[in-house]
Amino acid sequence: MTRPPDLPRGISAGAIPSPNIWNHPATYELENRAVDPDGVIEQTIVSIRPYAGAVVLDIGCGTGYHLPHLAAVAARVIGVEPHPALALGAQRRTRDLPNVEVRKGVAQDLPVDPSSIDVVHARWTYFFGPGCEPGLTEIDRVLRRGGAAFIIDNDASTSTFGRWFSWAHPTYDQSSVDTFFAVRGWTNHRRQMRWSFPGRAELEAVVSIEFPPEVVERILAEHAGSEVDYAIVIRAKLT
Predict the structure, then answer these.
(1) Most-buried pick from 46, 105, 169, 225 (CB within 10 A)?
(2) Rounded to two decimals, what is the model's pTM?
(3) What's phi and psi for 149, nearest 5 deg?
C-alpha cells in the first residue's frame, strides 16, 4: 500500500490527519482540561455501562489524556493512536500505570484481538457519518458479548458551539448523521455540557485550532468571556 502524500513519516497508513491535536498538542491539552467540567459525559457513559472491572479501549487516545482516569477503575486499558509522537506522549503519561498499554494503529484496523473489549471509548474520533463504516465494523469485531461502545460527537443542531460548528461546516446535516448511526444499531443520547477555560486567552487559543480563520474571527467578535455552552451526542451501542 502506498502512503498518502499528506501523511508524515511514521503515521499509521490509513490515518486521517487531525488539524487540531496533530499540529497543536499543547493547545489541545488546554481544550481537554476545559471540556465538560460537570462530568456530563462520564455520568452518561457509566449509567449505561460502567468501566469498573472492564477491559477498555480508547480509540484515538492522542497524548493519553483520558487513560489515567479510565485506568483508575478499569481492569485494563488499551489506547490506540496513529500519530507516533502523540502515542509516545500517551506512553509517557501512563508509564507508571501497569494496567495501561498504548498501541499505534488506526480505527479501521485496530491492533486488538476479536471479542476482547468490554467498553470502547472514542471522543471526537468519528465525524460526519459516511466514511467511518470500516471503523464501526472494527468496533463490532473487538467488542465481546455484553460490551458497549461510546462515541462522543458534536450536535450542530443547538448550543453556541453547535452554531459555530455549523458556520465551519455549512453543509453538515445533523439529522442525516444521527440516522446514519441509528440504522447501524447506535442509540443517540443528546446532552448539554460546556467548555470552561481559566481565561480568555485559553479560549481564543483553542478556538483558533478548531475553526478556520474566518470563523475564528466571527466567533471572537460575537462571544465574550471564557465559557461556552456546548451540545453533544453520545452515541452508544450495546452487544
Answers:
(1) 105
(2) 0.93
(3) -120, 145
